[in-house]
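Supplementary Note 3. Input sequence used for the single-chain structure prediction.
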Amino acid sequence: MRTKLLSVAIGVIFCGSSLAYGATINATSCAQSAVQTAVNAAADGDTVAVPAGACTWTSGITLTKGVRLQGAGASAVTINMGSGGYLNITKNPSFIIEVSGFTFTNTGTTRVMTVVGPWTGEPPLIHDNVFNVSGSSLIRYETNGGVIYRNVFNGTTDDSGIQHKNPSDTQSWSTADTMGTRDTDGKRNLYVEDNVFNGMANQGTDFDDASRVVFRYNTLNNSSFNSHGLDTSPVGIRHFEIYKNSFRQTDKSVNQSWFIWLRGGTGVIYENTIDDLNGQMWGNKTELFFSVRAANDGAGAGGCTSYACKHQVGQNSSGTGQYTDPVQLWSNSGTFAWTINEWSNTCGQNINNYLQPGRDFVFGSQAKSGYAAYAYPHPLRTSNGTTSPLLPAPANLRSQ
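The predicted structure, written as discrete structure tokens, is reproduced below.
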């Protein structure tokens, strides 16, 4: 056993190098300096245990080693994020970084957590935390690959729980898609599963530049799945899989205009349960929006005057060029009205030339031909056991 300057206990060793956990380094408190000292003393494969308490981080924690940062439980340890007090994660090339068992609060600061690094790095696991936000965002995820699961995100109308965007990425739209089982090792997409989003009506999630996201088995209470395209971003969303989620309007006083807003890329949407959006002030709203702003007002690099706009809704890439591959929707239950959402249309074009049912999006009763979902729950989750310190195992934790 390695000699440590801090309190050390032997951890459990899991099979597989990237999931091996060695010694346990006990931080003396939840204070930023104590946690960073413990992280500095740890080696790849160790667990850094953070005790109960309420602390404020003001200048940030840096996490590049493949360690398991484990709080005493979301009900026991609260971290208040001051200005610049982010948890900055860079993917490790050989070991999985893991963050669990905290409540993070953020009021008016830029974010709680950032995740960066190349696709080739091991996918981080962020789970069993509570994130509270007011007037800001929570997780900024600037790479593909990772699993965010069994967290609770609490916010207000314009807050974001997860912002997934990498504006400098040159790989995602220049390589073939990794939807479903084409993500052969489960490390090329961002998997967001079994989370709860509360109160973030406009953009509970914001999937944007280069994003390859699998969004499944989540519950959204007065919250939405939002995205951006090339029209207002450098790259725009690449592809998405949205399935087996519950979209709920639990408070009619919340003015919400959509549950899902798609502005680029392609994907599948199936077996979701969707409430009727019908607020007290704004009345009945459409649950699903499709947009191609580039054709309306020529916004950004995606501005175009003929079909198909670059990276628009219903477009895929073979790695050598863009081609039409419609968004496919099937077996969704509840209310699922859709509309093509038009902007100011300063270009004077007909948006229906760019977005057409049957060509750019297809409603049907059967699954997309050749598509099969990746294993659920994500296999990397088994490294943490099956019991959550925050939430009971969800009722929908089952094989597909």
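The domain at 7-384 is CATH 2.160.20 (Pectate Lyase C-like). The longest strand covers residues 53-57.
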